[in-house]
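Recap from last week: sequence in, structure out.
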Amino acid sequence: MAVLAETVHEWLDGIHNKRLSTASSAENFKFHKSRIRHLSGPGTFPEKDDGFGQGGVLYWMSRDQRVQDNWAFIYAQRLAMKFEVPLHVCFCLVPAYQADTLRQFAFMIGGLTEVEQVCIMYI
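Predicted structure tokens:
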């Protein structure tokens, strides 16, 4: 079992190193602008000189409950860095969550706890 654990850790380290070799920061990460949809409409995003940057960037987490390999999260990071404002992550957990089982709900909460820990590392 120890050999398997070492193999898994080596594999995870390899993924981490590949990410770092791709871009050292979200600011340098290359992505396609076609992946971005501004909810306020095209061309309506403010520039730094427009007085934007007095609050922060809110990333509304929903389907992709992870930090790594999450295009929307990477874009939110880039915006926060560009405007030199905090990045806030919000996940709306509704009281009547429609999980099939308590096990699925617990799995989701565990994953969100991991997201929180990763976000704290970036502070």
